[in-house]
């Protein structure tokens, strides 16, 4: 820099128009970024709303056509109410007093079960030889459920 001579424009103070132009360019870049992020957030929100409503419509249409697809997983363990020991081979069914179709599962030797059923609110019945039958509410109301999901329901059966 010793041997370099400054340009005459480098030493001259910037005019008001030059400062305003530089300031406007900086503001434009920030505003463009804000608008891009806002558009991306809006696009994502609209996409999720359409996806969710489409899933709700498909579920309702399959239910009306009497061809619903089981997408709700209920998992848990069946235990004795007094000893808290697992009850092997307990029977888990959708409550027959509800709307069909009805789904069924059996507990494992350790009392664990997994029932694939409909996501709408309904009841399931849990029974085992030597125990009183118990009913449990499962599912979600239409505006709270996602098309697929899982919930845990541990059940204790009382001996007869």
Account of the protein in words:
The protein is an alpha/beta fold and 160 residues long. The chain has helices at residues 8-11, 16-64, and strands at residues 72-80, 91-94, 104-106, 112-117, 122-127, 134-138, 149-152, 155-157. It has two domains: 10-64; 72-157, Sandwich (Immunoglobulin-like). The protein contains two helices and eight strands; from the N terminus they run ααββββββββ. The strands form two sheets. Strands 1, 4, 7 and 8 form a four-stranded mixed beta sheet that branches. A four-stranded antiparallel beta sheet has the order 3-2-5-6, with no helix packed on it. The termini are far apart.
Short characterization:
This protein is of the alpha/beta class and 160 residues long. 33% of the residues lie in helices and 25% in strands. It has two domains: 10-64; 72-157, Carboxypeptidase-like, regulatory domain (Immunoglobulin-like, Sandwich).
């Amino acid at each position: 820099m010793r041997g370099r001579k400054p340009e005459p424009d480098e030493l001259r103070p910037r005019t008001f128009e030059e400062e305003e132009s530089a300031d406007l360019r900086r503001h434009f870049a920030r505003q463009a970024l804000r608008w891009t992020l806002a558009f991306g957030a809006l696009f994502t929100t609209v996409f999720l709303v359409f996806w969710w409503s489409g899933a709700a419509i498909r579920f309702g249409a399959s239910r009306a056509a009497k061809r619903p697809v089981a997408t709700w997983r209920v998992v848990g363990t069946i235990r004795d109410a007094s000893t808290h020991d697992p009850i092997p081979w307990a029977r888990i069914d959708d409550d027959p007093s509800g709307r069909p179709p009805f789904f069924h599962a059996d507990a494992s030797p350790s009392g664990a079960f997994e029932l694939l059923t409909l996501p709408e609110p309904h009841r399931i019945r849990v029974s085992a030889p030597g125990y009183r039958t118990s009913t449990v509410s499962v599912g979600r109301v239409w505006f709270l459920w996602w098309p697929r999901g899982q919930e845990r329901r541990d059940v204790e059966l009382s001996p007869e």
